[in-house]
Amino acid sequence: MIRWLLIGMMAAGAWAEEPEKDRPGEAMQYYLEKRLPVGQKQLPLERYVAAREKLRRMPVYSSKARRRIAVERDAKGNERNISLGQWTPLGPGNIGGRTRALLIHPDKPEILYAAGVAGGVWKSVNAGERWEPLNDFLPNLAISTMVMDPAAPDTIYAGTGEGYNNFDAVRGAGIFKTTDGGAHWEQLASTNNPDFHFVFKVVVSKASTNRVYAATRTGVWRSMDAGSTWEVVLDRKAPLTGCQDLVIRTDVEDDYLFAACQGDPQGFVFRNKKAQEGGEWERVLTAPGMARTSLALAPSRQSVIYAMAASSEPGTCPANPGPNPPAPCYRDGLLGVFRSSENGDAQTWEIRTRTLEGNRIGSSLLSNTILFFDDVCTPNGRKGFSNQGWYDNVIAVDPLDPDKIWAGGIDLFRSDDGGTNWGIASYWWSRGVPQYAHADQHGIVFHPRYDGEGNQVLYVTNDGGIFRTDNARGETATTERAACNTSNAKINWVDLNRNYAVTQFHHGSIYPGGHFYIGGAQDNGTNRGTDAGGSERWTSISGGDGGYTAINPKDTRTLYVETTRLSLRRSINSGATFSSAISGISEPTDNFLFIAPFTMDPADPERLWIGGSFVWRTSNGGRIWERASVSLATGCTDRRTACPITAIAVAPSDPNRVLVGLRDGRIFRNSAAGDANAETAWPSAQPRVGVATWIAFDPTNADVAYAVYGSFNAVSADKHIYKTTDGGSTWTAIDGSGDTGIPDIPVHTILIDPRKTDTLYVGTDLGVFVSLDGGTSWSKEDTGFPNTVVESMSLERQGEGALLVAFTRGRGAWKVFLGPGEPCSYTLGAPSLKAALAAGTYTVELQTAAHCSWSILPGAIWAVVDGPANGTGPASIKLQVNSLGAGRRETSLLIADKTLAITQEN
Questions:
Q1: Cis bond before residue 820 (omega within 30° of 0)
Q2: What is the pTM of this model?
Q3: Under a CB-based contact definition with an 8 Å cutoff, are residues 444 and 469 in contact?
């Protein structure tokens, strides 16, 4: 979840300004609050199962063919895979996303399996050079662990539920299993219960592979029959918080296990020497303040075991903690690294690293390194703390050397002396240098043929996907100023996110013409993709946890992006630079939603709307804002402490008509919003209690609008889709009923087809649904579209047709052309341009139909468009090329889906 505020300004060895504080807990909370039934604290995952069953009975609609289609079923009644090519994946296939599990086939190490926490299981057959999705089985569930059967590597167990936080997180639905290398998966029925809602680790006995163990939120469970039945063998149920890690020895005949468990109130490491026989679970390690703990056995000497523990030390860290801060500053940071060289016996554990003993690099293992070293790397800097040991916490041991250990927190570290001294092995804040690996480490996996010399291959998984180093025994940075210069370390990392499309978008927008698109992604900033560049050439244009986006349709050089809460920024040069655009907004940033909605007036792109507890309006593109309402949060009705604005819509046919939704489900309206001020009270209605996730007006009738809700239904009267025909005074549910009704699942976005306004598209936690009759009946749209979370959708007109783009949480972006007609085509007068050394103006002819829109993306600043950056129909596009004294340089411009290569030389 680290913010990429430093990207683009750091060269190797450069230090930078303090990055934005990491907020992974708030991101999880945001995800939950959109979905939780009112009054509940856990997601009702059984409703996803019920919804999936209902999907089997619903009619299927093809957006491209614009009709319902027949579906073939196999002998068991399951739908055959619909692969009609109706939807096209856009990627990003080079950005990645949060990944907690990676497997390598022991006999065929070119075969890898990876699991995105919201994107399903992926497979590579060429050592990560390219990935393909295997099966979209309940992809809304978080996959936190996978394990292979040691005797049959095509048998894989996948545990779901990402519960690594101190509140109820994204709940899972037990353990899934494949016996054919991932081609088909089945849910283990005996794990479809609350004891397996959060599965942290699964291990398989080497002595007898029918014996499988799982660490869950309720303890350690054992199956003696390959997952068919389970029994609890270490009970850590509420008020305890289960066991978060589990390791098993492979050098003894018995099932010799260690489990790391939280609670009591501190955590413990347990050991069982004969787990297959119901042996005793002994408490072999604990320490005051021990929180989440990760475990690792030394493969070459399995009597050696390590534990890395986060701290739950109570108290408050001083605002200026100084060079030797007190223990509360390390809360959620490192408590210590422990080691036993004698089988984990209770009296044999040593504290190898402890935060209060002056080992600077070791003390930073679970903290944000760039902040931790700010006092020595920045003039007048100050040591800062941003600790994430509850979230990213992993330890591993070199297969050949029990004293060489790796630790992953926000960055990666290695110790060569059994955990006493440490070196920095990666630098998250210096993208573009060889030592860069994305932040927030979750997995460390050695190559099966690792020999420490010719093969030093090590894979890591993190919030940016999958990375590999080929010199895992290279030099780390060990000096007092280790973090100040990336060249201090010699371990190089390679990004393996090729076609690994698991990016989690919050929102996205399409450029006029539909050939470029931008989206804000969790953990991975705001990124831009193009048809000409393809799915694996997306680029980052802004850092942070990417949020909502907007593009000025009259001048596409003007873009708006955000990170978290009140953070709106504006670019007037196609995203080359951004500046803050929140001047005049006076309410606290904490009043705003974690990903705060903002919207652009369709009639006037200089007028934008945003809101926290109040509605705010700008009429000059964000240069200055003015308040347009009294507080709307007063009278919050869902027992929450705050009710921020969660949805905003402006009527395309009347810019004075604005609707605003809140977290408690109330929808406020104003028919003269352009004149509203700080004293203006907005009347409201409340279709239901729950989070209003999206509001959309009918494109031609401002009295008609739709609102959708993300919260699961809490009472029988609750629905997910509502319609008003009187401007928002009253609302009627249009979920439909029976097999043509929307199931009870979170709905996040709704889009109205402007050519036929009775055609509605909604994005849900289980994909896209379509209604052709204004909501009376619904069909599922899964003709080539994954069954994943759809957060937002955008539509771009193309003559009689239109292009629909869906931005998903876990499977990137997808597009489909909606007929009639055909997509627009474009031709350049020449594919390349050769410019003289002297400055000059050049003309490029663009041919296309009169109704076809287009946009231009610049390449270098020395060759720019002299005129509009977008338009409609044929055009003579002028380019201004700056002078070059001597030599040669080249760049390219993207014009619609075409690339214009520009060369300047003698």
A1: yes
A2: 0.91
A3: no
